[in-house]
Prior knowledge:
Elements: E1 2-9, H1 13-24, H2 26-33, E2 35-43, E3 60-61, H3 64-68, E4 75-78, H4 84-95, E5 99-102, H5 105-121, E6 126-127, H6 138-143, E7 151-157, H7 160-171, H8 176-185, H9 194-197, H10 200-214, H11 233-241, E8 244-255, E9 258-269, E10 281-288, E11 292-299, H12 303-320, H13 325-328, E12 342-345, E13 349-358, H14 363-373, E14 378-383, E15 390-400, H15 402-414, E16 420-427
Parallel strand pairs: 1-2, 1-4, 2-3, 4-5, 5-6, 9-12, 9-16
Antiparallel strand pairs: 7-8, 7-10, 8-9, 10-11, 13-15, 13-16, 14-15
The structure holds NADP nicotinamide-adenine-dinucleotide phosphate.
Amino acid sequence: xxxxxxxxxxxxxxxxxxxxxxxxHADKISGMSxxxxxxxxxxxxxxxxxxxxxxxxxxxxxxxxxxxxxxDIDVIVELIGGIDTAYFYIKQAILRGKHVVTANKAVIATxxxxxxDLAKKNRVLLLHEASVAGGIPIITAMLKPLxxxxxxxxxxxxxxxxNYILTQMTENNMEYDTALRLAQEKGFAEADPTxxxxxxxxxxxxxxxxxxxxxxxxxxxxxxxxxxxxxxxADIDFASQFGYKLKLLAGAKNTNGRLKYYVSPTLVxxxxxxxxxxxxxxxxxxxxxxVGELMFYGKGAGPMPTGSAVVGDIISVxxxxxxxxxxxxxxxPYPVTEDDLELIGESKSxxxxxxxxxxxxxxLGKVSTAFGNHGISIQSVMQRSQGEAAVxxxxxxxxxxxxxxxxxxxxxxxxxxxxxxxxxLRVLS
Length: 429
Ligand SMILES: NC(=O)c1ccc[n+]([C@@H]2O[C@H](COP(=O)([O-])OP(=O)(O)OC[C@H]3O[C@@H](n4cnc5c(N)ncnc54)[C@H](OP(=O)(O)O)[C@@H]3O)[C@@H](O)[C@H]2O)c1
């Protein structure tokens, strides 16, 4: 049987999950891949660290070169995280003719096109199924069984931390800070949750999804991105009275060659399949011109779900070793250029606006007229009378451009028709 040696970079959450699956299901994996797959060395930052996994101590090392230069190692599995060091190791591995598997969304979103190109030139595979939505095999699905489709839309709940927080705010009546603390206690949020709660993590994943689905690279920094830190419990409650759930969505839509994309807290109608995706779960809603609508659902993080995707990639690599790679290399992204697709960032959307309005006659009429002046039509209005001097008034607006909305809001605030704009949220239409 063919021997395939793996150099694992990292033995943290995902490294441990990957090692566990490779050892637990060794017989099945060798049957599936036609290879004996062994982890030969593991890079860690501290070999003496106490670990809750049984790994022979002699295969641990802090010397990356001893792995990257080892001629017996066929596959480098990068699971250290971060950008610069991981990018350097992946590049070195490719240049030395080694196949690479990674779960690192930050590296793929930042350096993906360059690394994929380099891998192609060096005739090695660079697989990264675990970089988007952990255990959900969305990348392989788009590259293989769905490769015959032209994709028109992808909408995802791709960050388990924020979905957990929003679910707790919705179902268990928690304020944002309490829900975040609970997520940290349960291991669903990191000590520094900034990348998750500000939407950066979701933007990395959307960047990768757009590269695979539409063949275009949009720098994650250029994706209009809003996180969930300013979400108030009151808005979640008001939205539910209109029949909506609040989710952090990462979306991209190709309408007649114009690609629109965003990461944003968004109200989703309770009847939409994404509305029932709760807690740490992830989901992706995909539309292809041939297949129609598809929904993928599962665990987007955690040692074992993420390890499942990493091991799947290792098996794909093992199958290729010793064969003519080009026959079995997953299809490259459809080579669309910026001339084929017009990248225009944030799309037209329906909006939810929460105003604080003084209890004076005619206020609502003036606000509604201001919207009308800017060509914005109103789907519904709700006034929450609390017997106070100022009351919340919620508008759900039909599709409009954000620029048009901002102009209408300027007219409303300049003329003091309302006391305050409490919040503005997108509504999925
Ligand atoms: N956690 C998830 O559920 C999840 C899901 C999807 C994707 N990912 C991605 O998977 C990757 C790994 O995440 P993780 O949660 O497993 O991270 P982690 O728990 O922090 O583990 C990182 C591992 O890498 C080692 N390491 C870090 N920097 C190193 C360096 N410069 N030199 C040598 N060793 C180094 C650490 O060594 P020590 O053990 O000695 O400290 C540790 O074993 C990241 O790219 C992440 O975005 C994670």
